Amino acid sequence: MPEGHSVHRIARQFARNFVGKRIRLSSPQGRFVDGAAMLDGHIMTDARAVGKQMFLEFDHGLWLRVHLGLYGAWDFAGDIHANGTDAALRNRRRRPIARVADDQMLDSAGEDSLHSIGAPRLTRLRMAEGEKVSIEPDGFPPEPIGQVRVRLLADDVVADLRGPTACVVLDPQEVQVAMDRLGPDPLLDDGPAAEDRFVTVVRKKPTPIGRLLMDQLVVSGIGNVYRAELLFRAGLNPHAPGKSLSDEQARALWRDWAHLLKIGVTTGQMLTMDGLGDAAYGRALRRRADRHWVYKREGLPCRVCGTHIALEEMAARKLYWCPTCQA
């Protein structure tokens, strides 16, 4: 399932390439005909992500809410430009595996957000948990591929959505209700109020912290990868009740989530290992096996203590953790 960094990157793709343009909506698959008709021909005025959900606003006040779920993905094609938030990188001198700043990471393989979120003219860009550029389509707009729930088409760009858990049209009141139900997202609000909200909820709950981090009503955007990595980085047992955490531990979790989310949005990768040298950093960007502490490392020795990484199920998802470092 795409985690928070992917959805924020997709929302920024829409903000950069679709907002301000008149959009033609259709449902090639036929399952969203009525919803597409409600938005067809209107100008997109906003695009925002809250955790794992994305909201697209149109000039007549209606919104399109999309939750990709386990199988959803967007394809972009046409005159796609890089994420506008990365414009400052264009004027910087690039070098392989360079660190421009803590929140602006580049690599020689083009896996930073300037390249992986954008695409050259008339190429197709897949955006889900793994972002991959596929073959060039023949002409514009390209024919829909697969079961496209909804197509958003402007004069020069197109976005196709397939396999979402949710794809619905909402009015402003319904959008506000949907957003208010979600837990805080540090990319939308990294102030003390959002942090306090997270800390207060966590420290009241007898629920294991490994479950709380996956609850989108507690905190937005954390999925299976970030859950495992955040808990390892904090040295927390995933079975520890939320109310057993100290105030300092809960606040450190929130701040580390904000830190990792920012890196994920910038690089396009769930890079959770800090302090890497240039060679290790390059490997981490290229290979998932080299970018995580515990995720998908079951049976392998812990990178810190050598204990075999454990695998079990929690909240209907696989949980990876070190029984020694997280005792």
Automatic annotation (TrEMBL):
State the InterPro entries in the record: FPG_cat, FPG_N, H2TH_FPG, Ribosomal_uS13-like_H2TH, Znf_DNA_glyclase/AP_lyase, Znf_FPG/IleRS
User: Formamidopyrimidine-DNA glycosylase catalytic domain spans which residues?
Assistant: 2-96
Q: Return the broad EC class.
A: lyase
Q: Which PROSITE patterns match?
A: FPG_CAT (PS51068), ZF_FPG_2 (PS51066)
- Top-level taxon: Bacteria
Swiss-Prot/TrEMBL cofactor(s): Zn(2+)
Is this entry keyworded Hydrolase?
yes
Output the GO biological process annotations, alphabetical, semicolon-separated: base-excision repair
Keywords (A to Z) from UniProt: DNA damage, DNA repair, DNA-binding, Glycosidase, Hydrolase, Lyase, Metal-binding, Multifunctional enzyme, Zinc, Zinc-finger
Q: What is its EC number?
A: 4.2.99.18
UniProt domain FPG-type: residue ranges: 293-327
Identify the CDD domains for this entry.
AcNei1_N
- Give this protein's Gene Ontology molecular function annotations: class I DNA-(apurinic or apyrimidinic site) endonuclease activity; damaged DNA binding; oxidized pyrimidine nucleobase lesion DNA N-glycosylase activity; zinc ion binding
- PANTHER family the record matches: ENDONUCLEASE 8
* Sequence similarity: Belongs to the FPG family.
What this protein is called in its record is DNA-(apurinic or apyrimidinic site) lyase
- Species for this entry: Cryobacterium cryoconiti
Lineage of producing organism: Bacteria, Bacillati, Actinomycetota, Actinomycetes, Micrococcales
